[in-house]
Amino acid sequence: MLVRTRQMITDRRMLNHGEGVLVAVSGGPDSVALLHLLHRLAPEFGVRLNVAHLNHCLRGEEAEEDAHFVQALGESLGLDVTIGQVNLYAGSRRGSLQAAARAARYRFLEEVAVRKGASRIAVGHHLDDQAETVLMRFLRGAGADGLAGMAPERRISTGSAIVLIRPLLEVSRRELQTYLERHQLPFRRDSSNRNPKYLRNRVRMELIPLLEGRYNRRLSAHLAGLARQMRWDAEHLQAEAAVALTDLSEPASREPGPAVTLDRRRAADLPPALLTRVLRLAHERVAPGAALDQSHVEAVLDLVSISEGSASLDLPGGVVARRAYDKLILAVRGAVVFPPEVSLAVPGRAGLPGSGLAVVAELLPAASDSTWSAAPERAVFDYDLLRQSGGPLRVRTRRPGDRLEPEGLSSGSRKVQDLLVDAKISRFKRDLVPLVVAGADVLWVAGVRQSRLYPVTEQTRLVLALGLEPEGDAEA
Prior knowledge:
Structural class: alpha+beta
Radius of gyration: 32 Å
Number of domains: 3
Shape: elongated
């Protein structure tokens, strides 16, 4: 078994020379065997070991004896031992007692690893634990990722540099028992592991023996093999999804932040197996630690697949997914997300990403039209005045605080938001309406209202005429 454990560590590159490794030891047979094996392998891999044990205060005197046993075991090997204690009955908690105990244990292990300078935390999960996990997840309706079971290594928590490793994941319970007997290693028994009120215990004590006895005596090995195959597939798809996410993202949203903007049309062309992972990664980037279940993923897939109009839905972690024509935006609710601005040359044309519309700028001699009346679909300005006093023209969407000095009002201004409401533009489409701005001035809320700034008068020589057209209508 030493050879197989060494091979697992080597193949998965679980340990690096000079690292600190914190070994989680409950006192049970699995963790005792793990500690003994790592103690034998530590000089070969050039790592230093520390031991940690958490008393959950759930089994009274028995738990106290477990802590004393681990303390003595670590000291007998010349290792530093940290014993912690947490009272799970004190205060309020969410979820099951087992889930609370697991969360408390991993928090404790991470805190100790940080204090001890350990970059790895080793736990004693083995092949039969993996089989139980896969079967439990299957019973709960897990998908492909769930059936991948426990990973041989993973980050202990979101954003942490500390890695949790499982060197015994390919070793069976029977092999561990043989190892303990051969080396005459004492260990403790956790009485709660035989309590049938816990699903894992029922799966281990009732369901797996039934299935192995009547259908397949190698069931546990096959379930662990299934997890291994699913994990290989998952790791490959996850790497592909990370590349696809970068490729589909607007440049400004390729780093963690309040929003990720994706090219919806190209995303819709991805295979579902890849697209679902892209969406999960995008959500994780916006709301680290929050997770999407399958119903959320399917709802976002619907947003991606429909090309008409705009729509939105709420996701875990306070995230809103919004379809804006050819864009899919995942953003924290209430986050201010500014799409990129587009320069508008005169004469020229500028398409606004996501709106499906383009603003067209023309220069015309004033004498070519004696009225130059503005209309919602057209705006006109004195180009010479604009060049003297305004900045370069840009096209963008609305931002908080945007105001327009409307034509027809001799003084004062109105919020762009109010103008859009008055025009009965739906709230989902308001973020898609192009605004033409010069410096800090909003000149035109396209299709709605123009500013009274830079008006066309009898003295005007050149007229800047702005119009709207569908983004794909430019002449070839």
